[in-house]
Amino acid sequence: TPSYMAPEQFQDSKNVDARADIYSMGVMLYQMVTGKKPFPGGYSPELIAAIQKNKYLPPRKLNPEINGITARIIRKCMRGRADKRYSSVDEIIYLLDRYFRKTDEKAIVDELKARIAGEDVPAKKKHIPLSRLISIASLVVVLGLAGAGAWWTGIVHEYLFPDTWSRLNIEIHYPDSQKNSDRIFKSVELFRDDDLSIPDVNKKVYLRTGAVGDGFYSFKSLPVYLETGRYRIKIQVEDLLYWYTIYLPPRKVQKEDSLTEKGETLLIDITALPVTEIDVDWMVSDCFSGASLLDGLNVKIKKGDDWVVFDREKEKLMSGKVHKFRFEKEGYYSKEYSLRISPYQKKLMIDVAMTPLGAGLHIRNSVVDARFTLNGSDRYTEGTSVGTIVRIPALEEGMNDFNIAPGIYLFEFRGKRKTLTRELTLAGGEETSLTLSLNDDETELLLTEE
Q1: Which CA distances in Å does 390 have to 234, 312, 377, 380, 383?
Q2: Reported confidence tier of residue 69, pLDDT bands at 50, 70, 90
Q3: How far, in Å, CA of 198 to CA of 310, rounded?
C-alpha cells in the first residue's frame, strides 16, 4: 500500500533495491510502537507529496516511552534518500547485538518469554518497563516480517531461545564448466538422528547461487534454525548423493567460538569430480532422404588449432571436458559439434543429419513476366548448410541464379499465357544451365539445357 512505499518507488518502481524494503520495515515499526502510520490516508497526490518530502511526526512525540535504539532504527530506516538508509537487515542485527551486550540480555529475554506466555512477573522483582519490552518485541517482529519468514525464525531464536536452538549454514561448490547454475539439480533434506525412526525435519532449505569462485559455483543456503541435537543431512547434486551426520550445539555456544559465530557451516566441495573414459558413437544420415552416410565418412576431433582424424578404437576421450567433433562426407556440408561432457557421463551418442551440397541452377530468360514452380510449390529449399525455405521469385530478363537443394524436380514454367512442364534432376555440387524462350511465332515456351 502507498503508506508503506519508499519515496523512490513513486518515481521508478522497477529499479528499486532492498533499501525500499528497509523503508517499509521502518514504517511498520513506527506503526507498531505508536499505533499510527507516519503517513496515513489512501492513495492520493497529498499522500505521495508527504512521503516524498519525508515530513512525519517523530515517534517519541506520540509515545515518549519508546527506547532510544528503536527510535534511532526507525529514523534511519525512513530516511528520504535511499543511500542514507541501512543497506541491509544485517546492519540492524549488528546494532541489536551491540545493544544486548550492554544490557541484561537474559533478563529481557526471560521477561519477554514470561509476558508472551501470560505468566505473572513477581512484584518484588525489578522488571523491565513494559514500553521497553514492547519496543524490543516490535523490533524482533518487524525484522522477521522484513525477511519473508526466514529472518522471523532467525531473530526469534537468536534472541529468545539461544539455549535450545542452533544455526546451520550449508554451502556447495560445484564446477562451473558443467552447466548453467540454474540448471544444476540440487536438494537438501534434514532428518533428526534419533537412532530409531530418523524422522524427517519439516523444514525447507533454500540454496541461492552466490559468488562464482575460481572455476566453480557457490550455492549457499539461507540460515537454517534447528533445535539443538544430532541430525542427518541428505544432499543431492546432479547424480551425486551425500549423507552427513552433524551435531548442532546451542546458538549461545556457537557464538562463543569465532569459527561458529554465524552458525555451523557444512561445506560440500565437489569441484574435483572424478572423470571417466567415455564411449563415443554416432549415427549419420542425409537430412532429406534419411539415407545412412557411414560409408566414406570422416570423423575428426579438434586438437589445438588442428582437426585430426579420430580413431575411436585407439584414442580414448575422457569426461569432464569440452570435445569438438567434425563430420565430413564428400558431396555434403561438414557438421561441427562442440560438446561439454560432464565428469559422470560415460556414453556419448551423436546423431548427425548432414545437408548435401547445393545444386547451382542458372536460367537465362527472355520471356516477359515468366515464373516457375517446383513440384507444384512456389517455394524451394536453398542448397545451403542451413537449408532455408524461400519463395521463388519471378524470372527477370537475362540470367537468374539459384542455389537449390539437390533432388528430382518437376518444373512448371509459365509466361505469355503459355505453360511448359519438365522433369529435371539437380545434383549436389553440380551446375545446371537452362534457357527459357518463346518460339518464333510466340505460340509456345521453349526450354533448352546448355
Answers
A1: 55, 40, 11, 6, 11
A2: confident
A3: 53
Tell me what the mean pLDDT of segment 234-258 comes to.
Answer: 88
Q: Does residue 93 come out as left (phi exceeding 0), alpha (psi in the -120 to 50 range) or beta?
A: alpha
The torsion of the CA quartet 25, 28, 30, 35, rounded to 10 degrees, works out to -170
Give the orientation angle of helix 130-146 with respect to helix 89-101, to 10 degrees: 150
The answer to whether the CB of 409 falls within 8 A of the CB of 374 is yes
H-helix or E-strand containing 245?
strand 240-248
DSSP helix, strand, coil percent of the chain (3-state; round to 5): 25, 35, 40
| Burial state string for 247-278 with b = 16 or more CB within 10 A and e = fewer than 16 | ebebbeebbeeeebeebbebebebeebeeeeb
End-to-end CA gap in the chain: 80
Element counts in the chain: helices (H) and strands (E): 9, 24
How far does CA 186 lie from the centroid of its chain? 13
Instruction: Provide the CA 306 distance to its chain's centre, in angstroms.
Output: 35
- Do residues 95 and 69 touch, judged by C-beta distance below 8 A? yes
**Length of the chain counted residue by residue:** 450
Report the 3 state secondary structure along 80-95: CCHHHCCCCHHHHHHH
d(CA 267, CA 6): 38
Residues 27 and 12: their CA atoms lie apart, in Å, by 20
* Parallel, antiparallel or unpaired: strands 431-438 and 359-365: parallel
DSSP state of 292: B
- In a 13 Å sphere around the CA of 170, the CA atoms on its Cβ side amount to 24
Tell me 108's DSSP state: H
> Please, how many CA atoms are within 13 Å of residue 303, restricted to the half-sphere of its CB?
7
At 341-389, the pLDDT tens digits run 877 788 999 999 999 999 999 999 999 999 999 999 999 999 999 889 9
- The answer to whether the CB of 421 falls within 8 A of the CB of 351 is no
CB atoms within 10 A of CB 140: 18
For every residue of 31-56, DSSP letters joined together read HHHHSS-SS-SSS-HHHHHHHHHT--
Give residue for cell 551425500: 242
Return the half-sphere exposure (C-beta side, CA atoms, 13 A cut-off) of residue 436. 30
Q: Coil, strand or helix: which one is 438?
A: strand
